[in-house]
Every structure is written in structure tokens, then in C-alpha cells.
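Risk register update: the risk that structure generation would not scale has been downgraded. Supporting records follow, first protein first.
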Amino acid sequence: MSQDTSTFGISIPDIFRSGVRGYFANPLPLSLAAAFTLGTLLAFRVPAQTAFNDGELALSLAYDMIGLILASIVALPWYYYALDQADGRDIDLRRPLKKPGRFGAQAVASFWFWAGFLLGLRYLFGIPSLLALVFYAFYGFVVADSDARGLVALGTSVRIGAGKRIGLAAIAALFLLFNLLGALAVGFAVNALTIGLTLVGLIITTSITMVSGAHVYRVLEKEVEG
């Protein structure tokens, strides 16, 4: 048995294939959730960059922080749909609205996650931010999958990834490269066409990443429960 299979109960190629199959089996709800999330992020990233260019660093950071938190809250249905797809259930577009309190939990968890992430970028070449990503990457799945409060969701993410940090970091790096492919068009030129192609590309690659992440979450969750 290969190391990646024995570590996660699912090999890295299988993780990727499950994400691709899951997305293309039900692309519409996943794409809509991705579009809303990326649109929210972009709505704040543009003024953040403008403020940065004008030398208003504090304002730029505030825009980024607000955008990241709001985008994470908007992304909660995306986590639901990815889990539904990973579990082989029909995606219910309205299911996230049946427990509105989970949006509050997502807001709390997102605030602390992104505060730590942005703060970590200032020290040790951003290594603390990478650690935050590896430790807390599953908190959105935890919120969508349970009634855990925000800080509990962060703690649960740490617990289910215990002993798997190096493997999770490797998977995160691979999917980061994969998502960079989605943004490849804008690297050649910045115009309406390349921006549109980039948005479409990112909607697809990030949705595949979400479904793949849901599969990894399920495998790790079962290992902890077992």
C-alpha cells in the first residue's frame, strides 16, 4: 500500500478524481456557490488594492479582512453542497438556510481564522499563515456538518488533522497549484476576456478543490471516530 493511501485511506490521485467526478456530476449548484463566494471576495479585493496603491495600508487590510470574512460566510452553502456530493446525496439548495445559526458559527470561525492568517503573513516569511491553513482548513466543513460553534469548529479541524499535517500540507500545495491553473488566463493579459476566462476557470478549479476537500474531511473524520 502506498504511503498516501495508508495515511489518508484515500490516495492523492483518488482525491483529485473524486473532486473532478463530483463537480461534473452536479456542476450548477457548486458553480453558483463558487461564483457568489468569489464575487464577494472580488468586491472587496478591488478597493483593497486601490487603497494599497494609494499608500493606505490600514484601509487596505480592513477591506481584505472584511472581504475574506464575508466571502467565508457566503461560502457556507458551498461547503454543504461539497459534502452532499461527497456523501452521494442529492444537493438541496435550500438546506443551508434551514439552520441559519450555522452562519453565525461560520462568521466567528472565519474571523479568528483570517485574523490569524493575515497576522501570520507578517512574521517568519508567512510560515504561521501556512500553519493556520493546515491546522484549520476543515472548519467550514465542520460548521456545515454539525451544530458546532465557531471556536469549536476550529478546534475540531485541528483534531481531525492530527498526525496528518505533512500530508495535508502536500495536498494543499498541490491544489494551490491546481487553482493557479484556473487563473492562468489573466497571467497573459488583463482585459475583459481574460478576466472572464479566469473567473470561469477558478469557479471550476475551486469547486473541484471543495469536493476533494469534502472527501478528505470524511476520511479523516471516520478515522477519528473509529
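Supporting record for the second protein:
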Amino acid sequence: PNSQFLFFEFSWYFFELNVHIGGWSTQVLQILFPISSLYNASYFHTRLIVTVIVLCRKMVLSTNFNLSHLKDELRLCALILSYSPKNESTWSHRRWVIKNLAQHLQDMPELIDKESLLVKDMAEKSKMNYRAWRHRCWLIPYMKTKQVLDELNKSKKWAELHVADNCSFHYRRSLLLALLDGAANREDSLICQSEAYLMWKEELRWNETLIRRYQGRESLWNHRRFLSQWWVQHLLSCEETSLSNESLADLFLSQEIHLLSDCLGAPGDEFGETRVQVELAALYILWISEQDAAVKGKVEERLKSVGSLKEVLARACPEKSRLWTHLLHC
């Protein structure tokens, strides 16, 4: 269309201007984005122009390195993202800038805090923005242990308000793994690992609270799978060196069966969320039972209170009985 052709004409003019001035001014994009709306340019067209400009700026920065220019570049990227929160080339360019800044900056924790705040703003502006959250995950190796703990606390409230957004839970999983890795590599590793285990246990408790509060949210059950997989293996390894007759793994699995039982006994609702909750709970127990032969035996033994695994799956979703039969015999 003529309007889109005109947008390309404007965009190319500003692109040439951007190259000519060395790319240090944000006025170019402050004019470009309103024009894209005025001329009804598609998202693809806008993204294409931004990608070309970003590549050009990267070449200029590579040949003319300057610390203040890199900081200006972060501000420019923030401007682009305010118009296009899911622009992959801009997020990638921002990571390239931060990587270069990390070689010269001493106050990386402050920069990371600003980046986390930016991602939060972009996630609020654009739901399910996995590009923004992936950027936040990329920052984790630059964090100290204290900052990882702070990020876990700060992201908790956001996750509670956006339980359907799996991106935030993926970020929390990355933080928890970083916490474990950091604890294993420190001199006081035993103390740090103990603290990490407490954090993991607290995450399981918090996740169960959300599952009971928000029924039928697949992201919550996916998060629980991740937590349970590592936790069960941890408990089993503890039993090998423990002199106690009490099995912590058995206790945990009993709690999970109790959660399933509560889901099965929950009253129905007009939106069908209870039915989805039951199916997700049954699939979760099936998934746990397939993780380890020893775990499978423990699960089947404790399922007697609610029925066999096949019966539970049939109650959860009878129209998928053939699928359950196939999964149980794999």
C-alpha cells in the first residue's frame, strides 16, 4: 500500500541520518515510531527497520568504543522497547551492550537492578513477553548471591499476580538453580546449601498455596514438577546417608497424594476450572511416578487411599482413557 511505501521512505531517510550522525541521538526513533502508526505500517515492517538500525549502531560502536556511548545506547534501547516490547533484535543488542559494559563497570549490581525493573515494566506492558524474561534470565550469571535472593523476593509478588504467565516461573527456576550452583562453589558450601534447601522447601510450600488458590493454572503445576523432581532426588540421596528410619521422600509423596485427594474432592464450578485442576493434578502424580522406579512403587502404595493411578486418571478425564492406558503401559 502507498501508506506503507511512504513509511519505508521515511524510515530509510532516518536510517541514513542515523548512520551519518554516528547513531548517538534518540530523536530518530522518537520520530520514527509515531510515523509507523500514522502510516499504518505493519509490525513486521517496523521490526525490519529497527533491526537494520540496530545492526548499524552495533558496527559503529564496535569501531568507535566509548563508555558513555554504551550507556546512551541502553537509553535508546529502552526507548525502542517502550514502543515495541517484544522486539528481539533490540533485546539482543541490549545484551551485547551490557556484555561490553561489564568489562569496564564496577557497579554491575546497580545496572542489573535497573535491567530487572525495565523487564518488569515491559512485562506489564506486554503479557507473556518471553523475550523480556529471557533477557532477565541472561542477567543471572552477573548476579551475586545476595542479588539472586533479592530477585527471588522481588519476582514473587509479580508471579502471584500473573499466575498464568509461565515466563516469571521460569525466571524463578533459573534463580533457584543459580542459588544451588553458587552454594556448591562457595567455601561455606554446607551452610549455603542448607539455606538453598530451605528456599526450595519454601518455594514448594508457596507453590502449593497458589495451586489451591488458583485452580486449573498449568504454569503452577509445571513449576511444581520442576521443584518436585529435584526435591525428591535430594530427599532420596539424604536417605542413603541418614540413620533415621523415617523416610522424608515418603512423607513428601504422601503430601503430594493428599494434594491430589483435595483436588479430586473439590466441588465443581461453572467455568470448569475444577475439572482442569483434577486433570493437572492426576498428570502431575503420573509424572512423579515415572521419574524413578523406587518412587513409582512409593506412589502406587500411597495411592490406595484414592484409588489406583489408572482409576484416578479415568476420574480426572474419562474421555482420554485410551491415552491414559497408553501412558501407563509405556
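Confidence is low (pLDDT under 50) at residues 1-45. On this basis the risk owner (M.S.) recommends closing the item.
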